[in-house]
Design goal:
The protein has 9 helices and no strands. With 267 residues, the chain is mainly alpha-helical. The mean pLDDT is 84. Helix 2 runs antiparallel to helix 3, helix 5 packs antiparallel against helix 7 and helix 5 crosses helix 9. It has 2 domains: 115 residues; 152 residues, no CATH class.
């Protein structure tokens, strides 16, 4: 049952990703309806999978990297759909949905069963995972806006002002959307890192004795802190902010990938 729901969710995300991609290449209301319809059904199926997986395998967001990735996939898609109610940016689905799909595929990888031990620091670790995951979700949306910005700017510089260019949002709108996502996600991610550091101290791991995954998390935090600081002090925005957002997101993804590989026995 769980496997069938998992496969169904993957198929729905894949259909939505393909529909969003071809919708970007050509104006089509039919493709847009298919994209959003498939994505909506994928979110519902994703929720069902997360719930079923919890009751069957105890793979909850706070207890297992596989559960974290499955939940993140759901929240990324849901966050994008909620964002659409405020700003109509269907083009971002071209970049958001494939990431949600990849996260869900990661959740289906074999696991060695490493879980958060009950006891010292257990509650703090769970809160650390919750806040960090919410931060990554918002960074994903910021990443989508940043990629769209870089594509739009490149087309504008090369004077390709037809086709895809006409279907991408204005640069100011993409820059503002990305900045808002980072502004909300950064405090959540910061809380997650602080809670993780406190937990490391409580279990005697040491503040500076961290793994490669934790190192990438720190790099991600530094990237987004730099983006916000330079925007406030020097007014940096546009291409510089977009590139910084891409770098920060890739570091955040490297963090999740490290935990996933370690959980699968690769590290």
């Amino acid at each position: 049952m769980i496997f069938l729901v998992f496969i169904l969710t993957i198929v729905l995300y894949a259909v939505a990703a393909i529909a969003f991609f071809f919708r970007l290449l050509g104006r089509s209301q039919t493709l847009e309806r298919l994209a959003f319809g498939s994505l909506g059904l994928a979110v519902v199926a994703n929720i069902v999978f997360v719930v079923c997986d919890y009751f069957a395998n105890d793979n909850l967001l706070m207890s297992h990297i596989n559960g974290t990735l499955a939940t993140a996939s759901m929240l990324i898609s849901l966050g994008y759909l909620l964002q659409m109610r405020r700003h109509r940016l269907p083009v971002l689905g071209t970049f958001v949905v494939p990431i949600a799909l990849l996260f869900l595929l990661g959740a289906g990888l074999p696991s060695q069963g490493h879980r958060i031990p009950e006891g010292i620091g257990s509650a703090l670790i769970k809160l650390h995972i919750i806040f960090s995951t919410l931060g990554v979700v918002l960074f994903t949306l910021a990443f989508a806006a940043a990629v769209a910005y870089l594509i739009q700017e490149t087309l504008l510089r090369s004077r390709q002002i037809s086709g895809v260019f006409q279907r991408l949002p204005a640069l100011d709108l993409l820059d503002t959307a990305g900045f808002r996502f980072v502004t909300v996600g950064f405090p959540l991610f910061t809380i997650g890192i602080i809670l993780g550091s406190i937990t490391s101290l409580r279990i005697g791991a040491g503040l500076f004795n961290f793994s490669a995954s934790q190192g990438f998390a720190l790099l991600a935090w530094l990237c987004f802190a730099f983006i916000l600081l330079t925007r406030a002090i020097a007014g940096w925005r546009g291409r510089r902010a977009a590139l910084g957002t891409v770098m920060g997101f890739l570091c955040a993804v490297a963090t999740l990938l490290g935990y996933l590989l370690r959980n699968a026995g690769g590290w």
